[in-house]
């Protein structure tokens, strides 16, 4: 399991979830880019929010897109939500399941 968490900018919603499905399907360049960004990206939430079992993540993304929309329109650099992957979990999983990517980290 690769633990991850997302929170809205106003901290109204915070959620922990398993990011392993994203790592199984992500291209190696996407994973390397994620690592280069300090294991933080909303891509994971965007990719998983429509999957069964990730309904809470969908609610968080929807809240950020609708309730925090005005703030993000005023400042396009303002992030309505943030997601962070546990780097230890990610590196351990990659070493066991996708060693070719782990070797590049």
Give a written overview of the molecule.
The protein is of the alpha+beta class and 105 residues long. The chain has one domain. Helix content is 51%, strand content 15%. It has seven helices and three strands. It has a three-stranded antiparallel β-sheet with strand order 2-1-3. A hairpin with a 5-residue loop joins strand 1 (3-8) and strand 2. It is elongated. The protein starts with a strand and ends with a helix.
Strand content: 15-25%
The H-and-E topology, N to C, reads as EEHHHHHEHH
Spans of at least 5 consecutive residues whose pLDDT stays below 50 are none
Radius of gyration: 14 Å
Strand order of the largest sheet: 2-1-3
Mind summarizing the main beta sheet? Answer: 3 strands, antiparallel
How far is it from the N-terminal to the C-terminal residue, by CA?
A: 19 Å
Please, how many helices? 7
Q: Tell me, what's the shape?
A: elongated
Structural class: alpha+beta
Q: Could you estimate the helical fraction of the residues in percent?
A: 40-55%
**Total beta-strand segments:** 3
Number of spatially distinct domains: 1
Mean pLDDT: 90
């Amino acid at each position: 399991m690769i633990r991850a968490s997302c929170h809205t900018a106003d901290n109204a919603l915070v959620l922990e979830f398993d990011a392993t499905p994203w790592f199984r399907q992500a291209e190696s360049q996407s994973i390397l880019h994620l690592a280069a960004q300090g294991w933080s990206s909303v891509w994971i939430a965007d990719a998983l929010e429509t999957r069964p079992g990730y309904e809470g993540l969908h609610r968080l993304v929807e809240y950020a897109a609708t309730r925090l929309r005005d703030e993000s329109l005023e400042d396009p650099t303002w992030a309505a939500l943030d997601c962070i992957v546990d780097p230890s979990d990610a590196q351990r999983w990659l070493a066991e399941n996708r060693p070719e990517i782990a070797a590049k980290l």
